[in-house]
């Protein structure tokens, strides 16, 4: 998701917060459906709609407040503020959007920016923060996959895409952080005539994804391309176990590249090449065991 959109969202939300009928501070609800949709399209984020009514029977009113309270839970707010645009609106004021969604009182529906339903939360889950978090995570992942498949992958896999378009697609891939995109980036790198700037950016994207296939490809490419070697040291902590798996046998150039990258990922000092050339087997083993222990901690 785009980091810049978070700042934009914070500024817009202040002017669009629901007034006295809104849930307490902590959840940024937009009261106007059109404004929420416009914000979602601009930020390319899915929407969470809560269809409520301000004056209801006691039973409905209690249920409404239970849902609002659940959405104020810190774990829910942490997800929604980063990945969603939030909108609550009067369920009895009919609009084209409500008719399209088939929205009813106290429904919570997650949609794409274009209004396609991603998920309608089961009523039994709408007042349970842990269930809401589970649904939000699934919806966010589905949205990222949708954006990648529709907007990014067609460019990465095109036969004759322009370098400028490939750079935009790779930048978007890095922002989305979709690990399954590694296969398309790896396929792109098989092109020996690839633009140098595009290739360098592809190495950085692989480091961001830090999948096992990404790490293996960077190790392969590092022998030929210094930028791939530099990208290895930018890998995420989840790459630690993949790098640690390379530390076996004799200290070959590939072994040393993996070792230095692992040390960088674990934020620890790496022994110089002279150590590996002159140290005995016991000293080498102790150093390997040390960084592998750090790798286990870094990878969670």
Kindly summarize this structure in a few lines.
The chain is α/β, with parallel strands linked by helices and 300 residues long.
What's the SSE blueprint?
Layout: H1 3-16, E1 29-30, H2 33-43, E2 47-52, H3 58-71, H4 74-83, E3 85-90, H5 96-101, E4 108-111, E5 117-120, H6 129-156, H7 163-176, H8 182-189, H9 196-209, H10 212-222, H11 226-232, H12 240-244, H13 253-265, H14 273-278, H15 281-298
Parallel strand pairs: 1-3, 2-3
Antiparallel strand pairs: 2-4, 4-5
Helix pairs in contact: 1-2, 4-6, 6-7, 7-9, 8-9, 9-10, 9-11, 10-11, 13-15
Structure description:
- This protein is an alpha/beta fold.
- It has two domains: 3-146, Glutaredoxin (3-Layer(aba) Sandwich); 159-298, no CATH class.
- It has 15 helices and five strands.
- The chain has helices at 3-16, 33-43, 58-71, 74-83, 96-101, 129-156, 163-176, 182-189, 196-209, 212-222, 226-232, 240-244, 253-265, 273-278, 281-298, and strands at residues 29-30, 47-52, 85-90, 108-111, 117-120.
- A hairpin with a 5-residue loop joins strand 4 and strand 5 (117-120).
- Residues 1-25 have low confidence and may be disordered.
């Amino acid at each position: 998701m785009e980091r810049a959109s978070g700042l934009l969202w914070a500024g817009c939300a202040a002017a669009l917060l629901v007034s006295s009928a809104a849930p307490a501070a902590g959840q940024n609800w937009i009261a106007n459906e059109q404004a929420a949709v416009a914000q979602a399209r601009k930020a390319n984020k899915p929407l969470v709609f809560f269809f409520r009514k301000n004056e209801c029977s006691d039973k409905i009113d209690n249920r409404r407040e239970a849902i609002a309270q659940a959405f104020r839970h810190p774990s829910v707010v942490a997800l929604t503020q980063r990945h969603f645009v939030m909108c609550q609106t009067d369920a009895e004021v009919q609009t084209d959007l409500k008719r399209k969604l088939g929205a009813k009182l106290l429904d919570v529906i997650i949609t794409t920016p274009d209004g396609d339903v991603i998920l309608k939360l089961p009523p039994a889950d709408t007042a349970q923060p842990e269930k809401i978090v589970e649904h939000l995570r699934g919806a966010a992942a589905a949205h990222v996959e949708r954006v990648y498949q529709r907007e990014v992958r067609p460019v990465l896999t095109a036969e004759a895409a322009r370098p400028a378009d490939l750079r935009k697609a790779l930048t978007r891939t890095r922002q989305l952080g979709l690990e399954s995109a590694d296969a398309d980036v790896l396929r792109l790198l098989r092109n020996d005539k690839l633009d140098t700037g595009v290739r360098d950016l592809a190495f950085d994207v692989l480091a961001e994804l830090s999948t096992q296939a990404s790490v293996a490809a960077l190790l392969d490419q590092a022998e030929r391309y210094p930028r791939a070697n530099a990208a290895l040291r930018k890998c995420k902590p989840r790459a630690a176990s993949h790098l640690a798996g390379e530390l076996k046998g004799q200290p070959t150039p590939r072994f040393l590249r993996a070792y230095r990258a692992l040390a960088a990922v674990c934020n620890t000092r790496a022994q110089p090449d002279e150590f590996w050339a002159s140290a005995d087997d016991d000293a080498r083993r102790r150093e390997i065991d040390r960084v592998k222990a750090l790798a286990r901690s870094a990878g969670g």
